[in-house]
Amino acid sequence: MELNWELCRIFYQVARCRNFSRAAAMLFTSQPAVSRSMAALERELGCRLFIRNRRGVELTPEGRMFYAHVEAGCEQFRRGREELEQAVGLQSGSIALGASETALRHWLLPRLDRFHALYPGVRLRLFGGTSRQAIDELKSGAIDFAVAAVPGGGFRALKETRLCPLRDVFVASSAFGQLRGRDVPLDEVMRHPFICHKQGSLTFEFLESMCKTRGVDFAPAMEPDTTGLVLDLARHGLGIGFLPEVAAREALAAGEVFALRLAEELPSRSISLLEYDGHTLSLAARRLRDMLTEDAAAGDAL
């Protein structure tokens, strides 16, 4: 039997007030309307819930039993309403976000700072790692969306919103000074010890595909886990590193490494927001996503 929720709500107020008239005032209705509602509820349940006395009403044993459950339900309803109001006002809520190292360090972090300052009650769960790992987390359903450094397109079932362009460079220390100041063909670069993100990463696949397209052998000498290690190894003269220019910017400015002038033009990549098209996001996740895409539309660059 499915009970009428409105009758239960009226019963809850009568049981709390122990008086039909006071309950009617709390419910902004009339005392006769409350009396009719309680009579209807008693008929529906097949038992008496109240006993009248000079001060108002008292609960019967059956009424006390029923009230214990109705009270718990009303309290859950009240808490649910409060949580929903807080979520709508972005006073609470949670976001699960995946981000690649480059995207997080060089584009996303200041925007997360701004979001947290505006909505300190929203809990952020961040899954870091490579672009491939961020996309895998998205496909598994563990996160709401991913922000990652990716080549354009090629993500079936995923919607991609480009946030900013990403320029890649080959960098080397003075140990490779003979390559400075001239156009260097890609096949010549690859004849030197070469440092690239590990196999299985999108960066590895991106560069491997570019080399295959141009008929150039691709055999990295070193495959570190992070962009920071690619730069460190190149800085120490252990090979020519391939990484986003923004990740090498300080080392380039300090003269610790120099950027090779490649004879061929590199394909473009971008920092993009990836999500499942049509997937319903929470209000908090939608607000963060909208802030990021608004920044992108305004032309915010690395």
UniProtKB/TrEMBL annotation:
GO terms for molecular function: DNA-binding transcription factor activity; transcription cis-regulatory region binding. This is LysR family transcriptional regulator. Gene3D superfamilies: 3.40.190.290, Winged helix-like DNA-binding domain superfamily/Winged helix DNA-binding domain. SUPFAM superfamilies: Periplasmic binding protein-like II (SSF53850), Winged helix' DNA-binding domain (SSF46785). Signal peptide: none annotated. Belongs to the LysR transcriptional regulatory family. It comes from the Bacteria. Residues 1-60 form the HTH lysR-type domain. The keyword Electron transport does not apply. Keywords: DNA-binding, Transcription, Transcription regulation. Pfam families: HTH_1, LysR_substrate.
